[in-house]
Design a protein that fits this description.
alpha/beta, 10 helices, Rossmann fold, 3-stranded parallel β-sheet, 5-stranded mixed β-sheet, 2 domains, 283 residues
Length: 283
């Protein structure tokens, strides 16, 4: 089973940002996902060569909107390359409905998968976000997924983008911030805590740099479990791929036409962005 991990941060492969993704972020993501992935599952991480780096996302609500088109093209390209499924590793679920309309391989995303699984782990969940700027969009997705009665809301840690990235190296500060906000959500009635970011989730689960204090990762606040969102999303993709390979129904395409949607984009030259250099690079 070959799964694409489509990522929202962008950087040229040989840049400082690309170095960080290749040497820090991807190895930690792999360690996190290796805890649960099937023996036959192969994971490929794909990044856009141009766009905004993750550290800029917490500065303004507009900036994260510059990158989602790359998510769309990355997954469309993956289907053509023979991938069995794709995972969008961003809690904002960028381009999720648009991608699902266009490709015929299973696609799951971090936010939707985490929220749906949380309803099986406890009656109400609370989401810890990395920035006030993403709180409203996350709240809107809670409503879109029909989970308002199962949520106590979203609270932000107020960490800067570079602090969130540093948690992949030393999670002490990130854990402290998450625990503080998590206890506020628990006081609001949360039975499950969800890390609302693709960097925050593995930083908590593996607690890099804080292994002495948290040898099994930071997985609970008191007796309230913390969702392992990255692992949950991968298992969702694997399940959907398995259902598809078995010939079972796995998604409702009523009202959609993947061939027509892709054909229109091919006819208009909009299937992939034009560039003199490489559009994506893989790890």
């Amino acid at each position: 089973m070959r799964i694409l991990i489509a990522n929202i941060p962008a950087a040229e492969e040989d840049s400082e940002g690309g170095w960080f993704l290749k040497t820090v972020a991807v190895p930690l993501w792999r360690r996190n996902l290796d805890l649960v992935k099937g023996e036959e599952t192969e994971l490929i991480f794909r990044f856009a060569s141009s766009g905004m780096p993750h550290a800029a996302f917490s500065a303004c609500r507009y900036l994260p909107m510059l990158n989602p088109i790359a998510i769309f093209h990355a997954v469309v390209q993956a289907e053509r390359e023979g991938f069995d499924g794709a995972m969008i590793a961003c809690f904002g679920d960028p381009m999720l409905p648009e991608v699902r309309q266009t490709v015929n391989i299973p696609v799951a995303s971090l936010g939707e998968s985490s929220m749906l699984l949380a309803t099986m782990m406890g009656y109400k969940f609370g989401i810890v976000s990395p920035s006030l700027y993403v709180n409203d969009p996350i709240e809107q997705r809670i409503d879109r997924y029909g989970l308002r009665n199962r949520s106590v809301g979203v609270r932000a840690t107020l960490e800067k983008g570079d602090e969130q990235e540093m948690a992949l190296i030393d999670a002490h500060h990130g854990i402290e911030c998450f625990e503080k906000v998590g206890r506020e959500l628990i006081a609001d009635g949360a039975h499950v805590l969800i890390p609302g970011c693709g960097l925050m989730s593995p930083a908590l689960r593996l607690a890099p740099g804080a292994e002495k204090e948290y040898p099994n990762g930071f997985t609970e606040v008191g007796d309230v479990p913390i969702m392992d969102g990255m692992a949950a999303t991968l298992k969702m993709v694997e399940m959907l791929v398995t259902l598809k390979q078995a010939g079972s129904s796995w998604v409702n395409f009523k009202g959609f036409s993947t061939e027509a949607a892709l054909g229109e984009r091919e006819a208009s030259g909009q299937v992939a962005p034009k560039s003199d250099g490489p559009i994506f690079w893989d790890c």
